[in-house]
Amino acid sequence: MKLQSLRGFRDILPAEAARWRRIEEAARAVTDAFGYAEIHLPILEATELFKRSVGEATDIVEKEMFSFLDRDKTAMSLRPEGTASCVRAGIENGLLHNQQQRFWYAGPMFRHERPQAGRYRQFHQIGVEAFGMAGPACDIEVIALSAALWSALGLEGLTLELNSLGSPECRAGYRTELQAYLRKHFDALDPDAQARVESNPLRVLDSKHPETRAVVADAPSMNAALDDDSRAHFAAVCEGLDALGVRWVHNTNLVRGLDYYTHTVFEWTTDQLGAQGTVCAGGRFDGLVAQLGGGEVPAVGFALGIERLALLLGDAQDLGDHGPQVYVCWTGSECMTAAQRVGAALRSRRVRTVVNAGDGGFKAQFKRADRSGAQWAVIVGPDELAAGRVQIKSLRDRDAQQQTFPIDEAPEYLMQQLGIGGLSQ
Ligand code: ATP
Ligand code: MG
């Protein structure tokens, strides 16, 4: 049997990893700037957690989870999303009761979907969740944070789609109204939508199926069903975003696949990724903490898909240079330790350094040095070493003379050449 990665599970090779790093660094900088604290959550959780939070009548819980019984016959699932774990952790550690919290997390999520570009079975999200803040200011903050992230990444052309599902009461009233309408037009719906009419009718609203869309076009409007408080909350969010210059469009059919959303829901979309056009999605979920046993704690959050963002970033972006700057060549066993010491001295001065390992004479080593992308080579040979010296050679400037330096002075010289240290850092 030929060993291969599982369907929908990918290796993120260095070229793509550089793009991921860009995204992660931007996310760290922006979440720091907004005062969000990082939290690490388990990848495996009790299956019950997702049944009670994401909801039994969702695609995720019905057919997308990797669930199994472990050796002790405990029902567990690879997490399909992060919000449930974040709320569970907040309750379990007493972080939510009568408190305000701003958290963010990053990591792999797992859903048994049909793999295609931008849709995988293991994918990675960065998520942000704010707890204990009921007013529209927090919705605005969380959306502004996502917008700041696109700016930090130099991403333009994303569209913010915004909608309100209202309070749980008006959401429930609207659900009944919509259900009655869909029952009347049952035969005109596609089979997927038909299956949703009883279990999760709101989900029918964002069907991509043409026949179902035609039915949905004349469905009662969610907006008409909003009560005064819900309407005022949504208006304040819209005005707050306008005031900050964050542009949005009202998509009255926008619902989220997960059951726990109330009031504001939003998605950032692009037309550059085909059917996988949503790069970030979130909203308010005031009922979830109570639903998981933690009391009434309002909450807002979002999750973005790293793979989709990485696809959008493309190759044109400046990904920063994280490769080696110096490659140390040596030959003769008596030079190995000296070469490794030079490497250590360079690294302690923040010079990214590879010391040659493996067989091969200087010719092979220079080839490796060149391929490594380093700008400089340090050469430690037996004759120079006996005199306490090394040679330094530019790998990029062919005309530059190879120079010899006392071994202790080489690191300082290279730091200067590379512009590291002093006031420049
Ligand atoms: P979609 O409608 O594309 O299936 P979703 O509503 O299921 O998305 P969410 O649960 O809101 O997605 O997850 C937030 C984000 O995570 C999505 O907007 C997307 O960028 C990303 N994402 C979700 N599922 C996948 C997947 N299978 N592969 C890659 N990215 C994903
Ligand atoms: Mg999905």
Verbal overview:
This protein has helices spanning 14-33, 47-53, 59-64, 83-92, 136-152, 168-184, 191-199, 210-217, 228-243, 288-291, 306-313, 333-348, 362-372, 382-386, 410-418, and strands at 37-38, 44-46, 67-69, 75-78, 101-110, 122-131, 159-164, 249-250, 262-269, 278-284, 299-305, 326-330, 353-355, 376-380, 389-394, 403-406. The chain is of the alpha+beta class and 425 residues long. The protein folds into two domains: 14-167 and 227-312, Bira Bifunctional Protein, Domain 2 (BirA Bifunctional Protein, domain 2, 2-Layer Sandwich), CATH 3.30.930.10; 323-418, Anticodon-binding domain (Rossmann fold), CATH 3.40.50.800. The strands form three sheets. An eight-stranded mixed sheet has the order 1-5-6-11-10-9-7-8. It has a five-stranded mixed sheet with strand order 13-12-14-15-16, sandwiched between helices. A three-stranded antiparallel sheet has the order 2-4-3. The radius of gyration is 28 Å and the shape is elongated. It starts with 13 loop residues before the first helix and ends in a 7-residue tail after the last helix. The site of adenosine-5'-triphosphate (ATP) has 19 residues, from strand 6, strand 10, strand 11 and helix 11.
